[in-house]
Amino acid sequence: MNFDRDYTMTIGGRAVSTAETEPVVNPATEEVIAYAPAANRAVLDEAVAAAREAFPAWSARPIAERQSFLRAIGERLKLHKKDLMRLLTLEQGKPRAGADWELTGTIIWCHETATHDLPVHVVEDSVDRLVETRHVPIGVVGAITPWNYPVLLALWKILPALLAGNTMVVKPSPYTPLTTLKIGEMLRDILPAGVLNIVSGGDKLGKWITEHAGIGKISFTGSTQTGKRIMESASGNLKRITLELGGNDAAIVMPDVDPKAMARELFWAAFQNSAQLCVATKRLYIHADVYDELAAELVEFAKTMKVGDGAQHDTDLGPIQNRMQFEKVKDLLADARNCGHKFLLGGDVPEGKGYFVPVAIVDNPPEDSRVVVEEAFGPVLPLLKFDDVDDVVARANNSIFGLGGSVWSSNLDAARKIAERLECGTVWINEIHAFSPHATFAGHKQSGIGVENAVQGLLEFTNAQTIVTKRVPA
Ligand code: NAD
């Protein structure tokens, strides 16, 4: 398999190209690295038809067989891990360590998701009657993914959707289609034709997928704005939807921590993947007693980080993934400067090739400033001072988002009490970004609808069916 060229879609188990293509840009150099196919409606129709044709046989297989397919996917990804990592860095920008984390996690997910089973709930088992609720696949699932973790987030959908017995049409972000296209290619000889179709194209292809009458469910990860549009257009045939959307996660640091020991972990909580992470810490609330010391430690640690091309071995933080997002982050920085907020570090973006933004740390800006209220999705972190628990909980919850959050304290009981009051889908205590294939991942409020991962995530790819049997011969 050649990872440097031949980026084709996978439809009905075959390679499919299109006359029209879209350039894919390396965000570190701004050079076009490849051209990806751009599917039109007719190509999408073909992909949906292939998925529909494959559905009866795939859904009829015993789940144990589909579990084996998931393990085989994991093995194939492992075989090509190094090449996928390199391609991921090239198209996404993330440094080698980040690409390794993403691929390693994805492979673990394949094997762990393969242990999940579809439960059957026996509601009544009496002399007269057997009442059981089981879970059946929906049909064709449309999966639409973003550009920050293109491999992991695609597999978070593919694995449970296929395990539940659905077939799929998957569309990666037009900014990072290459790794997903290659994964489609490497699975052609593993999965039966039509079970997993990968199509590439721009946002309008996403819209066509959400409108398509042949698709029964949309699983989407991306921005809240797009999520709302999807909810609207998926209503045509009442598609089921799972939406994993934006976040503005708060971390709450209590006064009983050791600022020096915490700085490194809190830095990565906020700046992992150059802060292009839905559950990155985007508002860091620090108790007044340790604010100055922790702020200073954070700045000192941040100064040791090298921002650069992810392909270079000594890079800690890569570029912003695309020009659109780069401009958004620059606009947020300009607003913070114009409003007179104080930067403890960074704030300016140097001219030159590549979408590089140096780490920016803002000193206690007003709670209603854009840099606090908006999801930056770039390396700009506001530090916010508090001295009262009720006040900080109210401020953390004062957001349209509710994706994740974290609490840092040496008093586990007190931390737990705060965690329970946070309005979000995941709260970490004294660590962050510890995900599990067996724990739900979900957004509250405008961070999403439905859950991913765990058996609950698997059930999102099914319809419930209750069978009532009267135990009297007819
Ligand atoms: P985006 O919403 O711009 O795009 C995501 C995908 O949707 C792309 O494939 C895009 O082509 C497609 N799309 C765009 N318009 C569409 C439409 N009208 N109908 C259907 N599909 C359409 O998001 P992005 O910029 O790629 O990703 C960044 C956002 O994703 C951030 O807000 C981030 O927080 C969020 N995110 C959330 C999670 C999570 O699990 N909650 C994970 C990662 C990223």
Q: What can you tell me about this protein's structure?
A:
This protein is of the alpha/beta class and 474 residues long. It is 39% helix and 23% strand. It is built from 15 helices and 24 strands. It has helices spanning 41-60, 63-79, 81-92, 96-113, 150-163, 178-186, 203-211, 224-233, 259-271, 288-303, 323-338, 370-373, 389-397, 412-421, 454-459, and strands at residues 9-11, 14-16, 21-26, 31-37, 121-125, 129-137, 140-144, 167-171, 196-198, 217-221, 240-244, 249-253, 281-287, 342-345, 360-363, 380-386, 401-402, 404-408, 426-429, 441-442, 444-445, 448-449, 451-452, 462-470. The protein has a 7-stranded mixed β-sheet with strand order 14-15-16-13-12-18-19, with helices on both faces. The protein has a 6-stranded mixed β-sheet with strand order 9-8-7-10-11-22, sandwiched between helices. Strand 15, helix 12 (370-373) and strand 16 form a beta-alpha-beta unit. Helix 2 runs antiparallel to helix 4. The longest helix is centred in the first third of the chain and has 20 residues, at 41-60. The protein is globular, with a radius of gyration of 23 Å. Residues 144-148, 153, 171, 173-174, 203, 206-207, 210, 221-223, 226, 229-230, 244-247, 278, 375, 377, 403, 443, 448 line the site of nicotinamide-adenine-dinucleotide (NAD).
